[in-house]
């Protein structure tokens, strides 16, 4: 497929895929009476399959894995071999074009910056969508997928698997029952990154491996020469492709807070970090988000709440009364909920929740309980009649607004040079207190060196950048030529 393919041509070529449903619904086959036909399986296309996507596909493999797509066939070799009957592609556009009528659902686990365009095109074809976290790279993209999923009424799931686990369920049940009182502050952290961050843009250009389609990996991001520091895994630390440790792990660590406290859009954000560079996420960062009063949930009021995030080795202060020596880090991070009656602590994915007081609540079960795995619950939702479908626990109706919160944290860090608390209008996706003439400078290179025992600080910065223009592009990306036209318009 040509890079120059227009949106109109693309949609025309995939029209058959939009109308096709190769799965025979349960209600037609009589599943309610214990009958399961051989054809009653979901046909799934996997896009981005070498890393995290490999694990997701293994959770889905009792269905039919009919197509596989990745820009790096060396990294993906083990998955091609695991599903030898699946058709293989480098370019997801070609896959949609040629065999869009042969699958019912997509599994997208590419680099963050391509999640939105791949998933949006799939949803427009009527395909169910499982998309890895973070759901998207920007606020606008999150809003778009939320609205597209609602418009086309497809089953969806973001890949924050803890949302289907018992820990998040328990946190919700305890908070909604008023067990810790009104929550006014949440502090959360991760021990990531476990990949390099705080790097300057490499000056060396490497030869592109024969098995890698570099231009396809770049996709809608601006062109840059290939260097093996970017791919196949370390892309998470580079702003054009990933969202750093916050985007990677907040989708796991902060989901219990978002769900239990019904957070919605923040009203204020402020970030700080170690040295902030133009191209690469910092080694460590701290972000504070403020959410306005949100009424009541079951037995508990939801007052204004402050959520503070730490990563890169930074951790929040230990809660008063916590047992000395008790490690707050459980499975890669943790969250602390400060209530007016007690303090609740849980790990990454919401695991192992407990109260600092030592009391064990016996709260009614209000949150949805999932018996299946995260992936299999997605399959269940795909097979249910859309009029009566029970949504997954990270359906885009929740995952989309939640991901907006996560990438808002990224915006807070990248705008720290404005030296103020940023005020956010969530409904209109804009900051309200950035002036038209405000500028920002960002470090390009840290030229620190030592000569004869004496330190030299020689930092290179960008020329002053208009802050409004800079933040506008981060909220809604300007895709590279040949890609922007494939992104659907925002549904009303």
Annotate the secondary structure layout.
Layout: H1 7-13, H2 15-19, H3 26-29, E1 43-47, H4 52-60, E2 64-69, H5 77-82, E3 87-89, H6 92-99, E4 105-108, H7 115-124, E5 128-131, H8 139-152, E6 156-158, H9 166-176, E7 183-190, H10 214-218, H11 244-253, H12 255-260, E8 268-273, E9 285-291, E10 296-297, E11 300-301, E12 305-311, E13 333-339, E14 343-347, E15 354-355, H13 374-383, H14 396-414, E16 422-425, E17 430-431, E18 439-440, E19 443-446, E20 449-451, E21 454-456, E22 459-461, E23 465-466, H15 467-475
Parallel strand pairs: 1-2, 1-4, 2-3, 4-5, 5-6, 7-12
Antiparallel strand pairs: 7-13, 8-9, 8-16, 9-12, 10-11, 13-14, 14-15, 16-17, 18-23, 19-22, 20-21
Walk me through the structure.
The chain is of the alpha/beta class. Among the domains are: 7-163 and 372-401, NAD(P)-binding Rossmann-like Domain (Rossmann fold); 164-195 and 232-355, 2-Layer Sandwich (Dihydrodipicolinate Reductase, domain 2), CATH 3.30.360.10. The chain contains 15 helices and 23 strands. The chain is globular.
